Amino acid sequence: MTNKYNREFLLEYVESENKKNECNVSLENMEKIVSLIEYFGIELYRPITRLLLSNWEEITERINNYTEADWMMADEIQKTTPTLDRFSIAMLIEVLEGEDTLNQAENAGRRLSEEELKAIRKHQDEQ
To answer: Whole-model pTM?
Structure first.
């Protein structure tokens, strides 16, 4: 379980990325992103934050149009994952199983920048 200090750090990071990239995600939804980061592991905070923030609007629109049948899987998963709310589980399903968003499709095949590669190597060296 992530301690309070880590949660505060994560929320500050998500807020800074949200502002910097003008994603306009609400504080309540940024809290959900932090919960998802905690679920997957704090070491993945950067890619999870960027993936969710940059695709938030489109994925939220999909979730807002869920049918009862669509919600069945999220409800089943929530029974064994009580730390995540129903919406967060639906978000996971969309990111992991759903169609690529327009943003993901536009970036398909894009090579990482030298800066991104250095950051990944640095993180791997720290492990």
So the answer is: 0.72
